[in-house]
Structure formats: C-alpha cells, structure tokens
Amino acid sequence: MKFSRLIQRAFLVLMVFLAPPALAEKAIDFQFTDVTGKPLRLSDYKGQWVLVNFWAPWCPLCWAETKTLNTLDKRKDFVVIGVGLDYGPDESAVQTTAKNHEFEVTIVAGGSRRDNNSVYRQVGPVDFFPTSYLYDPTGEIVMFVTGQVREGKLIAFMDEWKRERARKGSGK
Fold first, then answer.
1. In a 3-state reduction of DSSP, which class is residue 118?
2. Measured torsion, CA atoms of residues 95, 97, 98, 99, in degrees rounded to the nearest 10
C-alpha cells in the first residue's frame, strides 16, 4: 500500500515538472464560430489574454464561475470565449442556457466531446467541467484550469507573467 502511494506521488511530482514546458508551446490558431455566426481565431486577439472556457448546460459548477468570467471579460486586455459542450442535438440550448445564467462572454456551440470535429480538439482535453485554457498575449497556452476559475489566482499569474517578461527584456 505504501509503495503504491509512493509511486503516485512520484508520478505527480514528475507531471508538475514536465507540464509547464508542454504548455509553453505555441498554440494552434483555433478557428471557432460563435453562436451569432462570427468567426473567431486566436490570432484575432494578439496582444490580449484569451481564456477559452469549456462548460456544459447541465453543469452547476460552470454557472458558479459566471460572474468571475464576466468580470474578466470586461478587462481591456482580456477576452473570454465560453464554449458550450455536450448539450445534445439542439444547438440553441447553448445560447439559451448562457442567457439564462447571464453569461455575457462570446459564446460558441462546440458540439460533443465524442465528436471528432468538436472545437475542443483545437485546444486541449476536456475531461471535467468547467475546464479552461489561458493564452498569453503572444498566443501561447500558459495555464490549464480544471474546475472553477479564480479571479485572484488568474490575475496574480498574469502579473507574475508580466514581471517575468519585463525582467527577461531588461536582461536581468
């Protein structure tokens, strides 16, 4: 029993050290279409932080973070794209559910996680709702969040990212 826990802990430590470089790769320039028919590409938001938030209409945890995501989306340097998944055959359920929960961000109907053409496949795995991916202003995925997004944690991360970029730019 103790040996099994030791292996689990070693695996987690290894994943912590291996995960950041994998996330720092240039992201695919995703191509979505929002519920109004407007095309969206990651490259459209160069210079801004982009949070792609995957949610499902039946997910109560997803609606607990709505206020936070709406607040973040109002920032000049930030955009939130809410991608509804696993909503069944009626795509209008995505728009209706977002409206009912006062989700005021750009909304995309992303299909099913079982669909080979689902938009989430352009970003990364979604094994839990909500799941979010944060892109830095250069278009790199720099954070993966399973569960609710916490505004304070995200802002602190962004501030640290800016300080690190400034430090590297000054040659220190």
1. coil
2. 80
Nearest-CA neighbor of 105 among 65, 74, 138, 142? Answer: 74
Q: What is the pTM of this model?
A: 0.82
pLDDT digits (tens, 9 = 90+) for 7-61: 444 433 333 333 443 444 567 899 999 999 999 999 999 999 999 999 999 999 9
Q: What CA–CA distance (Å, rounded) separates 157 from 45?
A: 19
Phi-psi region of 54 (alpha: psi -120 to 50; beta: other; left: phi over 0): beta
Q: End-to-end alpha-carbon separation of the chain, Å?
A: 47
Contacts of 112 (CB under 8 A, 6+ apart): 85, 86, 118
Report the distance separating Cα 93 and Cα 143, nearest Å. Answer: 28
172: pLDDT confidence band, cut at 50, 70 and 90?
Answer: low
